[in-house]
Amino acid sequence: MKKATIIASIAMLFSISLNAFTLGNLGEFKFEKMNQNVYVMHGPETEPSKENEGFMNNPAVIESANGLIVIDPGGNYNVGKKILAEIEKLSSKPIIAIFNTHKHGDHWFANKNIKEKYPEVPIYALTYMIEQVKDNAAETWYGILDRLTGNLEGTKPFTFPSDGIENKQTVVVDGETFVMRHYSKGHTDTDILIEHTNSNTLFIGDNLITNRFGAFDESSSIIENIKVLEKIKNQEDGFKQYALYVPGHGQSSSEISETVDPFLKYLKIVLEGAQKAYDEGMASYEIKPEVDENLKDYHSWDAYEGQMGKHLIKAYSEVEMLDF
């Protein structure tokens, strides 16, 4: 009996190793079936680093009758090899389409891995996103990720998205229906939120992040990001209750309170602090201790110390601009 148990345990461990890859001390990463034909690999909830090799987003795969559709395949060529290998463990079907949710390279630089194997695969992204990455956004993100991870070798030349899409456009791939939503600003000015109607799943991209913080660049808006998340939460502008909510970073969930609410609450607290400081003639740094106290539930999120103050400054500048 003991021998059988040992053999079973070894078999289980071997099975796990065949279905995951490891990054330093961050653990194993593999695709999990989350909803009907939807699989998500939840990347490390950390900023880009040498330890995570530049991988921290949530690549997703939708299995159709005849192929696989990938959303945000990852952030560089080297990790892209590992992610592609995990995709191929899900099914022997070919990859027949890719979607990129926005211009930041940590989500789409691994397009290259898939395009090398499937040269005819269409890569969908907002038309304006394609213009931006071909202009300078790709080089900007390459510089950021290369400096922080040292793991961008092989990523160039970039594999840009090929097929432009627009707000409220519907794309059907092998019987799988995807509805696009774009707002002029949010996490960036190039975001698409993707509703997969077959499985009732909403891919929110980096308009939603949990357990870690990232930067808001010059094309982003904290105020508009809040509005997008409130539309989702309140089921406005065509949004509804979904069976699965997938953030750009952090854990997916069927419960909106577990996914949307935490980041939305964080952004609202930051904005309320910025508004109070502006109304009372204070600088953003003067209100920071009070905001920090109000955000004690978020102190454990990755990069809180490095990002919260920047978010407060950003929110303050947006409040100020509304007064002009």
TrEMBL record:
Pfam families: Lactamase_B. Residues 1-20 form the signal peptide. CDD domains: metallo-hydrolase-like_MBL-fold. It comes from the Bacteria. Keywords: Hydrolase, Signal. Gene3D superfamilies: Ribonuclease Z/Hydroxyacylglutathione hydrolase-like. This is MBL fold metallo-hydrolase. One of its GO terms (molecular function) is hydrolase activity. Residues 56-249 form the Metallo-beta-lactamase domain.
